[in-house]
Amino acid sequence: MVADDAFREFLSLAGQSGPLTKQPTNYGRKPIVAKALMATQSQIEETYNYMDQVFRAAYGEDADVSGAMFNGDFSLSLEQAQHAKHEYILTHLSVGPGKRVLDIGCGWGPLLRALQQHGATGLGITLSTKQAEACRRNGLDARVSDWKHSDRASLGQFDAIAGVGSLEAFCSKEEFLEGKQNEIYSRFFAFCHQLLRPGGRLFIQTMTWGKNAPSLHDISLEADKTSNEYIVALTEKFYPGCWLPSGESQIIDCASPYFKVVSSNSGRLDYMETIRQWNRRLRLNFSILIAMLRTLRYFLIDRNFRFKLMSLVQGCQYECFKREIMDHHRMVFERIGAADD
Ligand SMILES: C[S@@+](CC[C@H](N)C(=O)[O-])C[C@H]1O[C@@H](n2cnc3c(N)ncnc32)[C@H](O)[C@@H]1O
Question: How far is the CA of 28 from the centre of ligand 1 (A)?
């Protein structure tokens, strides 16, 4: 309650407040169709370094910053559902003692912790220096490294790879507009193929555009504040440099020269419950307020930070899932081909 009120206080000072309460507008348009670089390191740094203290104070040192797995049972706590997600990933990746696993976009290290607890060796890569520092402080192996500038020589070979909530950052809006999205995803799957042993598995969890995504050219902060166009514009401020894949079929198509699909399911409702529980937790924890006060200076000097805050307070990501502007997928792939195909 305290944190929530403080956020609102911030916003009313800035002359911008109030949740998005009206019903979604379905514009009857086709979802954006994606074609083929990414969030730059400074954009990722900006996003996660601001969040670093608040996030760790609210959710724990190595908490997940991605959707959990409730599987329809919303009586589960966030911790139980995140644990269920880790178990699901490790089972589907056939991970056990002695296996070497790469976590692309490791965040504050939740999956690395689960790997450690299962006797596997995890290596995490992230673009955020704060995340890598936090992981290492907590006994997890993580580097600041961009998969686009990495290869088998720099990272080694793996039995399995996971990318939980990172694919969203691989292609920027500018790259999408230049028609580079498919090319980027194809490069990503080629990279994973190169690092995996034959038959090795890859787990991807990602947001995608949903059936009610607005037309790209209508997305605007000038749009009606209850419109899909406005909330996507605000959500974009929270995730600078990120443009989503059009849907699971685009991802499967790009993976197909290198991987066969083992399974795919939607985690949209699970992500909504994750956000509900994140919000509840924010209201309950006093130490968060202290961490938030430390970020106050950003509010005064950085316009983008104010937009990020608005996006959080107005519950933009939740609205995107609720209105099916965005969807969410958990996908398991298996590497095809022999050793160095
Ligand atoms: C939403 S966070 C998810 C973190 C973690 N997997 C989790 O579930 O809590 C996205 C992560 O992807 C990382 N990331 C984004 N683009 C990347 C890239 N090109 N190479 C490596 N990591 C990247 C970010 O630094 C961040 O750690």
Answer: 33
Give buried/exposed letters for 289-304 (b at 16+ CB in 10 A, else e).
bebbeebeebbeeeee
Would you say 47 and 65 are in contact if contact means Cβ atoms under 8 Å apart?
Answer: no
pTM of the predicted model, to two decimals?
A: 0.84
Cα dihedral value 289, 290, 294, 299, nearest 10: 20
* pLDDT tens, residue by residue, 123-141: 999 999 999 999 999 999 9
What is residue 237's predicted lDDT score, i.e. its pLDDT?
80
Handedness of CA 317, 205, 85, 142 (dihedral sign): negative
E strand or H helix at 290: helix 286-294
Domain boundaries, the chain: 3-335
* Distance between CA atoms of residues 260 and 95, nearest Å: 19
| Partners of 326 in beta bridges | 209
pLDDT surpasses 60 at 33:
no
Residue among 208, 258, 265 at smallest CA distance from 89: 265
Distance CA 273, CA 73 (A): 10
Instruction: Count CB-CB contacts under 10 A for residue 16.
Output: 16
CB under 6 Å to ligand 1: residues?
A: 38-39, 44, 64-66, 104-107, 110, 125-128, 131, 146-148, 164-166, 169-170
* C-beta separation of 190 from 258 below 8 A: yes
Rounded to 10 deg, the angle between the 286-294 and 41-59 helix axes is: 150
**Is 65 in contact with 168 (CB distance < 8 Å)?**
no
| List of E strands, 100-195 | 100-104, 121-126, 142-144, 158-164
**Tokens, residue 235:** 């959500």
Q: Is 311 left (phi over 0), alpha (psi -120 to 50) or beta?
A: alpha
Q: Which CATH class is domain 3-335?
A: alpha beta
